[in-house]
Amino acid sequence: MIRIYKYGEVENSEIFARVEPKVDVASIVSDIIRQVRQNGDEALFDYCKKFDHVELASLEVSAEEIDAAFASVDADLIRVMKKASENIYEFHKRQVRNSFVMQEQDGVVMGQRVTPIERVGLYVPGGTAAYPSSVLMNAIPAKIAGCGMIVMVTPPSKDGTVNPAILAAAKIAGVDRIFKVGGAQAVAALAYGTETIPCVDKIVGPGNAFVAEAKKQVFGKVAIDMIAGPSEILVVADGTCDPDVVAADLLSQAEHDKLASAVLVTDSEALAYAVRDALERQIPTLLRAEIARESIDHNGKIIIADDLMSAIDIANEIAPEHLEICTDNPFDYLSKIRHAGSIFMGKYCPEALGDYFAGPNHTLPTSGTARFSSPLSVDDFVKKSQFTYYTKEALDAVSADVAKFATQEGLTAHAASALSRSKK
Questions:
Q1: What are the two backbone dihedrals, phi and then psi, of residue 332, each rounded to the nearest 5 degrees?
Q2: Using CA atoms, how far apart are residues 101 and 387, in angstroms rounded to an integer?
Q3: Which of 321, 324, 351, 362 is catalytic?
Q4: How distant, in Å, are the alpha carbons of 71, 79, 130, 132 from that of 76?
Q5: What's the DSSP call for residue 158?
């Protein structure tokens, strides 16, 4: 059963404590990466047999497999995914940054060029759940940015196939190549390349603890989006909210993972206990009831605050991945929210809208990293280069100043470089 705390009556360390995975995966992942670097495709086939319990004839998904999968998916789901992709495209196209040029001083031209990352790798989870929504959320911003190649990796099922809905989403989003490999070994293949899988410049997409650790270990060889932890939701709700609705929203994240956290912060003691009772009624009805039960019992919390402004302060302290403001006047509080990955406003905006359909990205900072990081966006798929041009006259006007600064730092070669052209 979910725990209920009265804010101010227990230690903050208990209220704000986060669950941490207990398994040390670093050494396991390090060995997997080493094996993939040394043995390439051979290692990938071996790991597919060991972890996915399938012997593959080929790692790459063929065009025929993609077309067959697309044809097999329910037509109404195809319609929904296409509509969701349109919403995602419309939101993300507004994030596009333009290059610029400055010519505000005589003889000086400066600017910034924004160019797409050439090759990106997209990790799509499999295992206990397959997420075609992640394909859309990661691939569409990359397409908008103009990335030259999008390579997708995803674990195969025991019969050697990939979930048809994932392949259909990849076709809709314009993914270029797809490979049947998951886990840390897939991240290693994207980072270093194998005989079949091309190396990429950046790896994005959520995964389990092994995938997160692999992304951490290959960072530097490639770029990554973020180190994603277990899913999180924090609901700020007042006493007028329907407890069944609030409970359903909490469970929408609790069903993801036994390590997921679902937190309610409310100014109503009556709502707190009503939501606890609603959770007990709803959990047994879920398809993933065992996962949701463990998440709620071990990581779930209900915090009773003195008022809604105190509830917002608590939310800022936790810095959740998903934040719902379930009040009649949510925009009164929007400017007060400093730390949250994605914010859902009002009583008719469940977090599930953001996971699938609304348009804003669902790849979000977790574990309190919303204090300093942002949702996945078009910015994650571009890089910026600066350029500078000075005429001789413009350089002559400032070379002594440059030399002064360089000399102060003890870098006399810098100073000489700045002055050398003026002497001529």
A1: -65, -20
A2: 9
A3: 321
A4: 12, 5, 18, 14
A5: T
From CA 353, how far away is CA 132, in angstroms rounded?
15
> Position 261: which residue type?
S
Q: Which residues of 161-197 are buried (b: 16+ CB within 10 A; e: fewer)?
A: ebbbbbbbbbbbbebbbbbbbbbbbbbbbbbbebebb
Report the distance separating Cα 18 and Cα 102, nearest Å.
47
pTM for this model (two decimals): 0.92
Place of tokens 């990796």: 153
Sign of CA dihedral 29, 31, 34, 39: negative
- Cα–Cα distance list, 229 to 137, 181, 365 (Å): 18, 21, 8
Low-confidence ranges of the chain (pLDDT < 70): 15, 18-23, 127-129, 423-424
Query: Given this model, what pLDDT does residue 313 score?
Result: 95
Q: What pLDDT was estimated at residue 149?
A: 98
Instruction: Give residue for tokens 């599930």.
Output: 352
Closest CA to 21 of 212, 188, 205: 212
State how far the Cα of 146 lies from the Cα of 395, in Å rounded to an integer.
Answer: 36
- What contacts 123, CB < 8 A, 6 or more positions away? 152, 153, 154, 182, 186, 187, 190, 203, 204, 205, 206, 207, 211
Total residue count of the chain as it appears in this document: 424
Q: Which residue spans within 17-142 are E strands per DSSP?
A: 100-105, 108-116, 119-123
| Rounded CA separation 332/247 (Å) | 24
C-beta separation of 328 from 293 below 8 A: no
* Active-site residue, 321 included: yes
3-state secondary structure of 254: helix
Outline where DSSP puts E strands in 276-356: 301-304, 322-326, 342-345
Q: Of the listed 213, 255, 256, 322, which one is catalytic? A: 322
The predicted structure's pLDDT at residue 21: 59
Spatial CA neighbour of 60 closest among 151, 125, 163, 132 = 151
Q: Is the dihedral of CA 76, 78, 83, 88 positive or negative?
A: positive
DSSP type of residue 60:
B
How far apart (Å, rounded) are the C-alpha atoms in residues 45 and 53?
10
What is the distance between the alpha carbons of residues 4 and 282, in angstroms, rounded to a whole number? 18
State pLDDT tens for residues 239-275.
999 999 999 999 999 999 898 999 999 999 999 999 9
- Give DSSP secondary structure letters for 195-259: SSSPP-SEEE----HHHHHHHHHHBTTBEES----S-EEEEEE-TTS-HHHHHHHHHHHHTT-TT
Residue 20 has which token pair? 């941490």
Task: Read off the DSSP letter of residue 94.
Answer: G
At 250 the three-state DSSP class reads helix
